[in-house]
Design a protein that fits this description.
Elements (H helix, E strand, L loop, with lengths): L2 H9 L6 E10 L2 E13 L6 H8 L11 E7 L5 H13 L3 E7 L9 H10 L3 E4 L2 H11 L13 H16 L5
Parallel strand pairs: 3-4, 4-5
Antiparallel strand pairs: 1-2, 1-3
The protein binds one DNA strand of 9 nucleotides through helix 2.
Length: 175
DNA sequence: ATTTTCAAT
């Protein structure tokens, strides 16, 4: 993606969701990136980014006898409806594990808390992006032209704040 | 108005 896309979607809030993904195969005790296993996408009209990703899954022709790991860097966390579809996907694809790093929590649609909890219940790992993941995103998915990642003001504070919100949600406390 | 919330209602 270009640098502007990164800044407006990951560092700032945009009315769009970007999803960067890496699909890896477990080989012995190390994870190996699949060919074409790395990329990014964004939501389409009335189709959230998560479902756009699921549309792409068949293209990898994953072998059910092997183990895979999918890692996402998401600009907004999944809504309830997406979470439900992802849970179904995970239940039907036990050879795939999912790790979601999100820049922030999408609170706009009701029931998002339950959705996030159900994802965790289905075995997905959920975490807020820290400077480590933002840097990885910048270094891997952005046409950075050799420019090193520059953390913006408040990155760590925001990340920690969102992280605390996420922990409260996952622990089923009120917020 | 506590902020640019995957167009939802």
């Amino acid at each position: 993606m270009d640098q502007d896309t990164f800044w407006s979607n990951f560092a700032n809030k945009e009315r769009k969701t970007y999803l960067c993904y890496e699909v890896e195969l477990l080989d012995g005790n190390s994870w190996v990136l699949l060919e074409e296993g790395r990329g990014f996408l964004h939501n389409q009209l009335r189709r959230h980014a998560e479902l756009c990703f699921l549309d792409r899954v068949p293209s990898w022709q994953l072998d059910p006898a092997k183990r895979y790991r999918v890692t996402w860097l998401l600009s907004w966390s999944p809504c309830t409806d997406c979470a439900r579809d992802l849970v179904t996907f995970l239940q039907h694809n036990s050879h795939v594990s999912l790790r979601i790093f999100t820049a922030r929590i999408y609170t706009y649609l009701k029931g998002y808390e339950e959705g996030l909890r159900s994802l965790q219940g289905a075995g997905a790992h959920l975490a807020i992006m820290t400077s480590t993941e933002f840097e990885h995103c910048w270094g891997t998915f952005v046409h950075n032209q050799g420019t090193p990642f520059e953390p913006w003001n408040g990155l760590d504070e925001n990340s920690q704040e969102e992280s605390m919100k996420l922990q409260r949600i996952l622990q089923n406390e009120d917020n």
